[in-house]
Amino acid sequence: MSKVYNWQLGREMEYPYDAAFPDRQFAFVFNLNRCIGCQSCTMACKSTWTFSKGQEHMWWNNVETKPYGGYPHHWDVKLLSLLEQSNPGGQTWNGQPADVKAPYGQFKGRTVFEAATTHISPEGAQRALGYLPTDEEWASPNRFEDNPSGSEKGHRGQLAFSSGANTPQHKTWFFYLARLCNHCSYPACLAACPRNAIYKRPEDGIVLVDQERCRGYRKCMEACPYKKTLYRGTTRTSEKCIGCFPRVEGRDPDGGGIPMQTRCMAACVGHIRLQGLVQMNADGSWKEDRQHPLYYLVHVAKVALPLYPQFGTEPNGYYIPPRWVPRPYLRQMFGPGVDAAVERYSNPDRELLAVLQLFGKDARMCFRYEIKEGPKVFENSIRGRKFELFDDTVIGYGADGTKIIETKVEEPLHVRPSQHANSI
Amino acid sequence: MPKNESDPEDPLELNGVALLTNEDTHGEMVVCFTEEFMRLGYNASKILALFRDPFYIGPSMVTQEKGEAFVHDIISETFKAWNRECDLTPPQQPQAEDLVP
Amino acid sequence: MQLLLDDDLVEGATFLCATRRHDIPSTSIRRFHQSREKAYSFLDPDERQEAFARVHQEFFQEWGLRAALDSGLARFQNLQQHLMAAAFRKARVRTEEGADLHVNPDARRRAIVALLPERMASTDRLDPFLNHELQHVSDMVDPAFEYDAEGVSAGASPSQQRLVRERYRLIWDVTIDGRLGRCGFATVATEAERSAEFERAFGFLADRSDRFVQLWEGDHPTHTEVLSLARDPRGFSQTRQIEPGAPCPLCGFATFQWIRAADISAVVLGRIRKDFKEWHEDEALCARCAEMYEATAMEGLPTTIEL
After folding, report:
1. Domains in chain B: how many in total?
2. Which of the four pLDDT bands, split at 50, 70 and 90, describes residue C163?
3. For residue A305, what are the β-bridge partners?
4. Chains near A, with 3+ CB pairs < 8 A?
5. Is residue C247 reached through a cis peptide bond, with omega within 30 degrees of 0 on the bond before it?
6. Residue of chain A minimizing CA distance to B61
7. Structure pTM?
8. A322 to chain B nearest CA, in Å?
9. CB < 8 Å to A162, chain B
C-alpha cells in the first residue's frame, strides 16, 4: 500500500499503487436540479457503444431514481453497509472546509481501500472493499423506480396510458441520479485487477480496460464501489464506459478537430451536463484555473460535489445536489459540502447564473469562459433575499481558443422548425 | 392467501423503504423545475406541459399527487418573482368534451 | 437417464467455485485459469465458445459439481426409471428457479431444473434445493401420485384458480419437506416454518394443527388428496351447509351473507327455480344473487333463455 493524497477527503489515504496523475483529467458536472429522468443520455450511450451481442444488459450510462432505484440493485446501500460494518459509527467527517486541498473538511472514516485491509470477503482478501453483484442485481435496471400511471381517459392532446397503474408508486420525495464511470483518480477497479488490464490514460485520465489483457476475473466489478464495470459473457471480458475517448481526443469529425463532450453529455435534453478536461497539480489536486467552468463550479462556487466521496476513489463526476431533497440524505451521498452548495445554488450570484448557461449549449468542450457584463434586468426579493438579475453574456472557448458558445443569461429559446432533422 | 415470507427483492412486494424523512417536498420540486426551465428559456405554458406529460415521470407525479392547480399556482408565482411574463390562464376544470375515450 | 447441462450454468458455477470455495486446491484453481487463458487465444467466436465450454465442463467435473447433481438425482430412485433426461439450466433470477416436467408426444419425459449458479458454490444451498425440486419431479412421475397438471389450474375464476394453486403448492411442499426430513435429507424449510405458513394459509380451519401434523408426518399423498384439500378445505361440497365462507349454490362464490328462501318473494323464487333446477330452497343463496334476482324481477326484465 502507498500513501496518496485524496483532496476530496482532505487527507492522505492508503492505495495499492503510487499516485500518478494525468496532465488533464476527464471530469464532469451534473446539475440534478434539472434532470427529469428522460433517459436520453442512457440511450445515446447504448446506441453508440453497447448495442452488440453480449452487451444487452449493459448500461454504461444509467439514470436511477433515488432513493429507491439502483443499477445494480441497491449498489450504494450495500457499499455503505459494508463500510459501516467495517467501521461501526466511524464513517464521519469533521474539520472545517479549507482550501482546494480540503474543501469539505476531513473524512475520519475508512475508504474502500482502508476497510479492505481488515475485511475478508467470500472471495478472499480484497484490495478494495466490495462485492460481486449477481446477474439478478444487474437485471431490470429500472426496478424500484417510480412508475408513471395515467388514466384511461386523458386530456385531449396528451398521452393516456395505464400500463403502470398497477405497480407501486412512491408518494414522497425522489430525484434522478444520472451515473456513468467516474474515471476516478484512485480507481478501485484498476487497483483490484489481478492482470493489470485496467489503466488510466496519462493524457486525459480516462480509465480503460485493455480487452487483450482482461481475462474476466471480475475483480474490477467486485471492487468498483460505483459498480460501473460490467462483464460481457460473449467475449468473457469486462467492459466499462470509455469516456467516448475518440470525441475527447477531438477525432469526431463533428468537432472540427477540437475535443468534444461525450455522447451522453451532448444528448442531454435537460442541459444538466457539462464535461471537460481539468488541469492537475502534481499531488492530484486541481490546478487553479479560475476561468474554467468546471473549476469554477467545483472549487470557486462549490456547488458541484463528488458522489460518495467517502468511498475514497476520488471520483471525477460532480453533482449539483437537488435542492428539494432532505439534507441528511444528500449529506450521505455528497458529503459535508451539501448545505453550502444547496444554499448557494438556491440563491445564485451573477457569475453562477452566467456559468450555468454554458450547460448543454455546445457539444464541444469548453476550456475557458469569460463574462461580459450586461444591464440589470430587475431587482426583487426571492426567498426573503435581495436578488438582482443581470443580462450578462457568457462566452465559452474550446481547446484551441475557438469561441464555441456565446449566450446570455436571458437567452430566448429558439425552437427549430419541424422540417429540420433534430440532431445531437 | 399468504405466501412465502416477504421478499425485499420483489418489486411488487409492499416494501417498507426506510426514509430519513417523510417530508412533502413536492412544492420545492415544482419551484426548482420551474426556475430551471424558465432559465433555459421555456415559457410558463411549456413548463406546465412538462408537468402534465406522464412521460416526464417526476414532474407528472406532482401533478397526479397534488393536482394541476397546485402546479399552476407555483409556476405563476415563480414567474412573478423572477419578473417574467406568465402566459398561463387560470386553471379550468376539464370539460366533458376534452376527455378522450 | 441422461444428464444434460447448460453451458451457462456450468460456466457460472465453475467461476464462482474458483473464487468462493476454499476446499479446492490452489493448484487446481491455477490450472483452471491457465486453461481459460488458452481459450482466449481463439479468435473465432464459435471456436472460442467451444474452447471455454470444454474448460468449464472439465472443472465442473473435477470439482465435484457434476457429482453433486448426480448424487442428488440418485436419491430419488424412480427418476432413473421414469425420466429420459434430467437437464439443469441456469436461472437468471430467483423467481425462475424450480423444476418442470416436460412430456413429449411419445410420452417420454424430461425434467428441467433451473437454478442460480450461486447455489452450486455451496453444498448448504444446493442440497436442500435439489432435494426439494427433485422430490417434486419424483412425485410427478410416480404413477401412485396420479399427477394431473391441468387439474391444478382448474377453477371457476382466475382468483379461485390462483388460490387453489397457492394452497396446492403449500400442501405439497409440507408433505415433501416432512417426507425428506424423515429420510434424513436436507430441506428448504423447517417444520416450524412450514407450520407457520400453513397456519397463515388455513387459519380458518379449527383443526389446522392436526391437519398439518397429518400432512407433515403422513406418507405419500396423492394428487387428488392434495387438490381436494386445496380446493375445498372445509369440505363444503359434501355437506352443502349454510356457513360463513361456504360457496353459494348459485354463483359458486364464497359468501358470508346468506339469504333464506323463506325471505324471498314467490316471483323471485320462481325465477331462481327456473334457472337452477337442482337448487333446493333449504340451501339458501348468497345476498348478491338474491339482490340480482330481486332487481330483475322488480324491473320486469325477462328471465334467461333456456338453452
Report:
1. 1
2. confident
3. A319
4. B, C
5. no
6. A148
7. 0.82
8. 8
9. none
Catalogue the E-assigned strands of B1-101. none
Cell numbers representing residue C58 in the block: 472439465
Inter-chain CB proximity B29 and A324 less than 8 Å: yes
A247-269 burial, b for 16+ CB within 10 Å, e for fewer? bbbbebeebeebbbbbbbbbbbe
Choose the closest CB to B54 out of A150, A271, A382: A150
Residues B29, A174: contact at Cβ < 8 Å? Answer: no
The C-alpha torsion from C26 through C30 and C31 to C35, rounded to 10°, is 150
* Distance, CA of A30 to CA of A97 (rounded, Å): 22
Show residues of chain B in contact with C254, CB under 8 Å. none
Residue B97 sits at the chain C interface (C-beta within 8 Å): no
Q: What is the pLDDT of residue A170?
A: 63
Q: How many residues does chain B have?
A: 101
Q: Which domain holds residue B46?
A: 26-86
Phi and psi (nearest 5°) for C164? -65, -40
* A73 contacts in chain B (CB < 8 Å): 9
Q: pLDDT value at position C149?
A: 76
Give yes or no for C201 touching B (CB within 8 A). yes
A19-145+168-408 topology per CATH: Alpha-Beta Plaits (3.30.70)
DSSP 8-class letter at B94: P
Most confident of A251-255, B8-12, C19-23, C27-31: C27-31
Q: Does B9 touch chain C (CB under 8 A)?
A: yes
Q: Which residues of C touch B9 (CB under 8 A)?
A: 94
- Report d(CA C133, CA C99) in Å as an integer: 6
**Which of these, B59, B2, B11, B66, lies nearest to A168 by C-alpha position?**
B11
* Angstrom distance (rounded) from CA A229 to CA C58: 28
